[in-house]
Specification:
mainly alpha; Tetracycline Repressor, domain 2; homodimer; DNA-binding; Arc Repressor Mutant, subunit A
DNA sequence: GCAATTTCCAACCAAGTAGTTGCAATTGGC
DNA sequence: GCCAATTGCAACTACTTGGTTGGAAATTGC
């Protein structure tokens, strides 16, 4: 098993992802990560530095994974609503990223937040939203994206409030999904209408 | 200072609220709570039982406080949008409740979630939403409430994504507030239209 | 002032923590 | 088969935690 350093890193990253997702930054146990990976504890410090750095690596990797698995494509409000639905599905079947993001938001101060979540990756998504909804400016696109991401990410992290909905757990998820898709579509449509009205009033460049 | 047990409990509850909000359930330190309250550690175990029970007490008290401070009143989609705005303001000036709710969602399993957040208090709010939007059924009202609560609570807990918005911190909050109010109003209006259409098609009881 | 209760103080316990170290065993390239 | 790098093992350090305990001091109703 030795000599394959890449494999060792992957094992550690996968184990760390599960551990951090379940227990957060402070709650995660380095010993558990090493044990789950079937790798020795010192490898973590050797390859990733301190616990905090390992968390950063986990978060960045998971963001990239979700961003590539759930692309924004097509055009128009319905296309954006479709994106919202796919993001919801992704987070409902695997709530790892939402949990990591909320752990970070709660445990870290505004200044110590990782670069990955701060803008680097998110800004790309804003650009994609602008592509789907031509005419909508960057600020409005950011607002819309924040709304949808908050709704999709919040669901797997708030087991309390889903008790407000009736039926079985799958039923509740289906209901919630429909509500989010509708919200996304409606808001996207409203922003598009705004943009066209503004363009008609002040024919821009 | 002795002999006033009620005062002692209040001091402990206030200190515990700040500590749990900042550090979560596992991250909170009993010693710090006692020190901040200027009260001895054993009082906590005497009055509230274990750490977990103290957290429950804190969460329930904070929910009741916010529910009474931010009532749902008036009628129509704009009234509901106004509620969303006031809830956002409340959470932006004091993010304690959102933090407590998300800490609980992350740290506790679906089954061990406190009674306070599970349905007891939330169900009351659903009823109030139905009053503001007459004709909307309980399920739709719950959907709408979940959407607004998720958006308002998510904002103070996700310092990462607000970097997507431009301008100073207050500016970003103003923008976000407007976006949430608009979403709430629009969705409330849509649900109301649905309800009236359904009523017209199948004149009910 | 007296008695009952509440509180403070300080130490204590068993358990668990991140991070380090020295050494032997394993592995792959050659 | 040899050598150099990687890894497992196990112990260790210095520290922190929730929760408990025993006795002395402070407070209030009467």
């Amino acid at each position: 098993m030795a000599w394959n350093t890449e494999r060792t890193k992957e094992l550690l990253l996968a184990a760390a992802t599960a551990e951090f997702s379940a227990n957060g930054l402070a709650g995660a146990r380095v010993d558990r990560i090493a044990a789950a990976a079937g790798v020795n504890k010192e490898r973590i410090y050797q390859y990733f530095g301190k616990k905090d750095d390992l968390f950063d690596a986990v978060l960045a990797a998971e963001m990239i994974r979700v961003m590539t698995e759930v692309p924004i494509r097509g055009s128009g409000p319905e296309a954006f609503g479709d994106y919202a639905g796919r993001l919801f599905d992704r987070h409902t079947t695997d709530g790892v990223l939402p949990r990591l993001v909320f752990w970070e938001g709660l445990e870290r101060g505004r200044e110590t937040v990782s670069r990955a979540t701060r803008t680097d990756h998110c800004a790309i998504k804003v650009g994609q939203v602008m592509d789907v909804l031509p005419g909508v400016d960057r600020e409005d696109a950011a607002d819309l994206l924040i709304t949808v991401v908050t709704l999709c990410d919040g669901w797997p992290v708030l087991p309390q409030i889903d008790a407000l909905l009736a039926g079985s757990a799958p039923d509740r998820a289906v209901r919630r999904r429909a509500a989010i898709v509708r919200t996304a579509t409606l808001m996207a449509g409203a922003l598009l209408t705004d943009a066209r009205a503004k363009e008609a009033a002040h024919p821009g460049v």
